[in-house]
Every structure is written in C-alpha cells, then in structure tokens.
Amino acid sequence: MAEVMKLHYTVSGDDFTRAGETSSKVKKTLNQLGFRPEVVRKVAISMYEAEINMVIHANGGTIDVDISPEEIIIVMQDTGPGIPDIEKAMQEGYSTADHNVRELGFGAGMGLPNMKRYSDDMQIDTEVGKGTCVKLVIKAKE
Amino acid sequence: MKLSTVKELLDGTVLTGGELLEQEVDSAFGSDLMSDVLAFVENRVLLLTGLVNPQVVRTAEMMDISAIVFVRGKCPDENVVELAKSKGMVIITTEDTLYVASGKLYSNGLTGSAKEG
Ligand SMILES: Nc1ncnc2c1ncn2[C@@H]1O[C@H](COP(=O)(O)OP(=O)(O)OP(=O)(O)O)[C@@H](O)[C@H]1O
Ligand SMILES: [Mg+2]
Known about the structure:
Order of helices and strands of chain B: HEEHEHEHEHE
Strand order of the largest sheet of chain A: 1-2-3-5-4
Order of helices and strands of chain A: EHHEEHHHEE
Low-confidence stretches of chain A: none
CATH class of chain B: Alpha Beta
Low-confidence stretches of chain B: none
Shape of chain A: globular
Radius of gyration of chain B: 12 Å
Structural class of chain B: alpha/beta
Oligomer: heterodimer
Mean pLDDT of chain A: 96
Number of helices of chain B: 5
Largest interface: A-B, 26 and 20 residues
Helix content of chain A: 25-40%
CATH superfamily of chain A: Histidine kinase-like ATPase, C-terminal domain
Strand content of chain B: 15-25%
Structural class of chain A: alpha+beta
Mean pLDDT of chain B: 95
Helix content of chain B: 25-40%
Number of strands of chain B: 6
Number of domains of chain B: 1
Bound molecules: adenosine-5'-triphosphate, magnesium ion
CATH topology of chain B: Udp-n-acetylmuramoylalanyl-d-glutamate--2,6- Diaminopimelate Ligase, Chain: A, domain 1
Distance between the termini of chain B: 25 Å
Number of helices of chain A: 5
Largest sheet of chain A: 5 strands, antiparallel
Shape of chain B: globular
C-alpha cells in the first residue's frame, strides 16, 4: 500500500438499527490491509462512538476515511444542531440523549471521552444550528 | 471457561454459533448499557446483557467480543441473530436475570473484566 486509500460514506440519520455499519466496513478493510489489532481496535471504537453520535444527535452525515501506512484519518461531518458547550459535552456523564436513546443502550455521556481516549488526536469543529465536524487521527506506526 | 460450560451453567439455548462452543472466554462483562461496554471493556470477554437490539451485536463486533448471553429470557429478532451469525458470533439465551447469570458464572471461576477505576 504505497499511497493513501480514500473511502467515502454517507450515514443515514433515520435508521438507528443501521448505525455502526460504516465502522464495521472500515474495521474489516483495516483487518484485510493487515493493520495491527491494537490499531484496528482504536479506530473501530472511536469511529463507532462518533458514528452513533452522528445518528442519535445529528441525523446522519458523511464520513471520509484516509488510510495510509502511517495513520488513519477519519473526518465525520454532520449538519445537525451543533454542540453549544464543547467542554461540558466532553465531560464523562454529560448527555442530552432522550429516553428513547437510553432504552437502546446509549446516552451515558461516555462517547466523547472514549473517542479522545482511543484516538491519538481528536478535533471537533462545531457551530450551533450548522453542524459538527469530528476529526480523529489514529497512528498506525509504533 | 468453555462456552459449552456457560451454556450448561445457565441452562441456556444457543441461537447461533452452536459449532463454536469449544471456544474459551477468560472474563465477562454484564451491562444493559452499550455506552459502558464501549468505555469499560478492555479485552475479549463474554458479554451478558438484557438488551437485544442490533447495536448490541455491532458493539460486540467493535470490541472483538465473540460471544453474547441474552438474559431474562429476552429473545432477539431474527435479523439480530442473522447479523451475529454473519460475524461468526455465538449467541446464547437464558431465563436467568443478569445478576443470577453473572453469579453462576463468577462462582464457577469466570471473573470480571473492566478497566482499573
Ligand atoms: N454530532 C453531534 N451533534 C450534536 N451534538 C452532539 C454530537 N456529538 C455529541 N453531541 C452532544 O454531546 C453530548 C455528549 O456526547 P457523548 O458521545 O459523550 O455522550 P452521549 O452520546 O450522549 O452518550 P454515549 O456516548 O455514552 O452513548 C451528547 O449528549 C450531545 O448533546
Ligand atoms: Mg455518544
């Protein structure tokens, strides 16, 4: 794999049962490309958390994944409500998820801290009323 | 612990992966919150949960969890079982509650898995 492999996906916002399909595809691709299990795990967990957020908080969006031997860069863009107070949102336990989301097993306010933990770099650009862009970088080299 | 032992101890029914019961698990995690599974599970575990939606299988897939026990007699939809089957997972259901099922497995030597507080 000499150059960067670029993948592009659209995530539907109205079907929660399909949330995570993109992360599943990317995980499979990384395994096939022979990335180390620790690297694949970091990508899978952080990307899945972000994909679920995109579906439950922002009605879906697009995902771009750039894969190179050095690093995996995931850019997730939505046109949802945005995050008014990002510091607050980053705290463990803070969640605006409603009852329906909790019934499905999510909404504990653990996602963003977990994404930070499993990625090597995380940047969030968000504007209330416009949307949110989450960029995750996972280093593939030891 | 072998998955066949898990099935026996919980008087469980295997919904998929019956050919994989010789596999071993060395710890387990029980929760109805997938958020916590994602945040606390550190290694390949047996997952016990009372939640039966497709996201349970997806969460397990992301965490490299290859066996799930659905407690309290919860039966997942056919599509959930199919999804698990396509991922090569084992699904067992039991009438036991999460507490009772966990107690049976723990007292027979299957310990917990969670990150250090
Ligand atoms: N893409 C997004 N668009 C709008 N708001 C978001 C987005 N992602 C996160 N948020 C806000 O940040 C809060 C915290 O997110 P986080 O992922 O940590 O927790 P959660 O999704 O509510 O629960 P969990 O991730 O544990 O299931 C959310 O409740 C929501 O208010
Ligand atoms: Mg979340």
